[in-house]
Amino acid sequence: MSSFVDSLPECFEPFGRVEARRMFGGHGIFHQGRMIGLVARDTLYLKADGQTAGFFEALSLPPFTYLRQGREATLHYREAPVAFFDDRDAAALWAGRAWEAALRGKGTGARVRPKAGAGEKRKRPATRT
């Protein structure tokens, strides 16, 4: 693990215990089995949803994006504010928001929402008869 990832449990301490797990060239940050953050290129992104996105937007904090099959995909994770690392109360507040977003979300992990290409249809799962 990187020294950045190693430092994160201390940052999250005012909120609660977290665990970093390697995944996809980065790390997932988990609290009680739910993914509340991810680390890519030594940048922390916190789980966001419709109820918390405005807090991130107010600070111009971008979403996590990556290329998937030549197209940009966006996950429901936004860059953590600088205050998260400098202020224990802010860390608890932002981690709490990420936790609440994770609880409202389906599943425990990240969701990929690639932008569909023109005229491209989504594949439907096979149905049983």
Question: How would you describe the overall organization of this protein?
Answer:
The termini are far apart. 29% of the residues lie in helices and 31% in strands. The protein is built from 4 helices and 7 strands, in the order αββββαββααβ. Strand 3 and strand 4 form a beta hairpin. The protein is an alpha+beta fold and 129 residues long. The chain has helices spanning 3-12, 53-58, 83-86, 88-104, and strands at 19-23, 26-31, 34-40, 43-47, 63-68, 71-79, 113-114. It is globular. 27% of the residues are buried. The protein has a single domain, classed as Yope Regulator, Chain: A.
Largest sheet: 7 strands, antiparallel
Oligomeric assembly: single chain
DSSP summary: helix tally:
4
Q: Which percent range describes the beta-strand content?
A: 25-35%
The CATH topology, please? Yope Regulator, Chain: A
Regarding CATH, which class?
Answer: Alpha Beta
Radius of gyration: 16 Å
Distance between the termini: 48 Å
Helix/strand order = HEEEEHEEHHE
Poorly predicted sequence stretches spanning 5 or more consecutive residues: 108-125
Rounded average pLDDT:
86
Fraction of residues in H or I helices: 25-40%
Task: Give the secondary structure arrangement, pairings included.
Layout: H1 3-12, E1 19-23, E2 26-31, E3 34-40, E4 43-47, H2 53-58, E5 63-68, E6 71-79, H3 83-86, H4 88-104, E7 113-114
Antiparallel strand pairs: 1-2, 2-3, 3-4, 4-6, 5-6, 6-7
Nutshell version of this structure?
This protein is an alpha+beta fold and 129 residues long.
Summary tags:
alpha+beta; Yope Regulator, Chain: A; 7-stranded antiparallel sheet; 29% helix
